[in-house]
Amino acid sequence: MIPRYLVDIDLDSIPHVHTDVIVIGAGIAGLFTALRASETKKVLMITKKSLLDSNTRYAQGGIAAVISDEDSPEYHKEDTLIAGAGLCSPEAVDVLVHEGPNGVQDLIRMGTQFDLENGEFALTKEGAHSQRRILHAHGDATGAEIVRALSERTKLDPNIEIWDDHFVIDLITQDGECFGALVQKPDGQRVYVRGNATILCSGGAGQLFRYTTNPDIATGDGIAIAYRAGAHIQDVEFIQFHPTALCYPGAPRFLISEAVRGEGAYLRNIKGERFMERYHPQLELAPRDVVARAIVDEIENNKSTFVYLDITHETEELIKHRFPTIYEYCLNYGLDMTTDWIPVAPAAHYMMGGVKTDLHGETAVRRLFACGEVSSTGVHGANRLASNSLSEAIVFGRRIIERIQELPPLTGNPTLRAESPRTESPKQAVVEKKLKLQKTMLRYAGLKRTAKGLQKGYDELARQLSIYETQMTKREDYEFANLLNCALLTTTAALQREESRGGHYREDFPGRDDLHWKKHIVFKRGEDRVEEWI
User: Fold this and answer.
1) How far apart are CA 51 and CA 125, in angstroms?
2) Reaction(s) catalyzed by this protein (predicted)?
3) 208-246: buried (b, 16+ CB within 10 Å) or exposed (e) per residue?
4) Distance of alpha carbon 286 from its chain centroid, rounded?
5) Does residue 56 have a pLDDT over 70?
6) Is 0.70 topped by the overall pTM?
7) Which residue(s) pair with 44 in the sheet?
8) How many other C-beta atoms are found inside a 10 Å radius of the C-beta of residue 303?
9) Cα separation, 6 vs 416, whole angstroms
């Protein structure tokens, strides 16, 4: 059993800080909600690294919204529902496609500069979209541009206080209500931050896997602390592996945007053959899960470690103009996109599930909200449609702030009760344990899964449960405890879902089974899993 709190502490013995709204995380969800909340409230923004470190910064493709006269919310909704493989919430998708354009206007008002062509937004198309509806910035640096614009405003906002390099250990709750968070400062001192509303914007859990496009900070903290606090965790078996991450000696798994295939790039196996026609009629623009598994098949069949992405048939001008960041990055490793095929392989990219929320971002714990990748709003279903993640963060961020305005003042004082005194420090080096966890997840809970493998993976992970009985003091310990929490939930859900759908593929159950599995697997601490039918 995973304990309620990671550390034993008496709240009365540590400093208290009060604010109106606590925002945990600094990606697009955190920055945007902090700025919107600060229009009427005092905001404390807590980030475990800095404002410029988040998954958003690495988002290349863009943000999906209905802008063109040739497009419509109905088209966007249909594309999202098809990609989501029957598990999207139609109500949540409706909210996304109708409110997305206003969210984009908010970003523009906040200083984001999207690319223009002839005075109009330069829209591109990505996999599984029927229309050109992806706004981008600086070609392939959309996330970085959004973070730049929003973080600049955040730093200047008198109603926003920023705590960099601080770690949220746990949420403080009592009787199903969130009172704030227990935070560790860079010097190791702990502080209780009390707030009228707490918004989790802590991103995803890419570090569950050995190979990921996510930064080091994506350790599933928000999902784990929300789970311990009593929130519901939904759909965590659905992990999106990006099909095309750079796979080259000495280079990190750098994301090669789907937009490269959107602009006409081919996938070729190690023999130089195009292969997607054997897997899907949409070829290179098939849904991500299909493309990623096709690549793994080709890698296995040809005993290689990668396939090639080939855009050499397009003009040098188009490649450099549309993909300046990717072009320069590859050049640093001696790869020229205009003349070379780029070696790529799948890498963990995005978790479709997370902390279950309603249509205003509120969780099962009162006053606790979740926004962005950490949340499960119902928009993504079993497989996220490309570029819907940035839109989701903006749309539901706006709705969270509307809901927060209605909250009455927080009353009462919670008490933190120690469950059992912890005395021992963690024994094994965290770096070893983390690597073992990542390899276990990649091997048994990656792109292809079986009951036997998942059970073996779960058993290996469960051997690490003793970490929760130790006296943790370092950020690395907390991160590993959170990763382990997420890994156990993911393998449990993947073992239970005896079908293949979206980002969850079972070799022993290769078909989609709507009769038995058109439902969500939902976890709540201390209870058996719940199944909620669509």
Assistant:
1) 29
2) L-aspartate + O2 = iminosuccinate + H2O2
3) bbbbbbbbebbbbbbbbbbbbbbbbbbbbbbbbbbbbbb
4) 21
5) no
6) yes
7) 22, 161
8) 7
9) 11
Query: Does residue 420 sit within a domain?
Result: no
Flag whether 416 is in a domain: no
**Could you tell me the sign of the dihedral formed by the alpha carbons of 259, 261, 262, 265, in that order?**
positive
Q: Are residues 292 and 178 in the same domain?
A: no
Statement to judge: residues 292 and 308 lie in one domain: yes
The CATH code of the domain that includes 39 is 3.50.50.60
Question: Mean pLDDT over residues 332-340, rounded?
Answer: 97
What confidence score (pLDDT) does residue 124 get?
Answer: 85
Q: What is the CATH number of the domain that holds 303?
A: 3.90.700.10
Nearest CA to 225 out of 374, 72, 443, 417 is that of 374
What is the arrangement of strands in the sheet containing 342-351, beginning at the earlier edge strand?
239-246, 342-351, 307-310, 266-268
Q: Which residues contact 64 (CB under 8 A, 6 or more apart)?
A: 76, 100, 126, 129, 133, 134, 385, 386, 387, 388, 390, 391
Query: Does residue 5 lie in a domain region?
Result: no
| Domain around 249 | 243-348
Q: By percentage, how much of the chain surpasses pLDDT 90? A: 84
Residues 80-120: tens digit of each pLDDT: 999 999 999 999 999 999 999 999 999 999 999 999 999 99
For 99, 191, 212, 276, 511, the CA distances from 494, given in Å and listed in that order, are: 33, 37, 19, 27, 14
Query: Dihedral sign, CA of 371, 180, 53, 207?
Result: negative
Token digits for 21?
């709204």
pLDDT at 37 over 70: yes
| Residues with catalytic function | 288
Distance in angstroms (rounded) separating the CA atoms of residues 234 and 72: 30
Task: Clarify whether residues 87 and 162 are in a common domain.
Answer: yes
What distance in Å separates the CA atoms of residue 142 and residue 131, rounded to the nearest whole number?
19
- Give Cβ neighbours of residue 318 (< 8 Å, ≥ 6 apart): 263
Tell me if 69 is assigned to some domain.
yes
DSSP E strands in 142-238: the ranges are: 160-163, 167-174, 177-184, 190-200, 233-234
Number of domains in the chain: 3
Calculate the CA 480 to chain-centre distance.
17
Residues 158 and 209 in one domain: yes
Residue 248 shares a structural domain with residue 283: yes
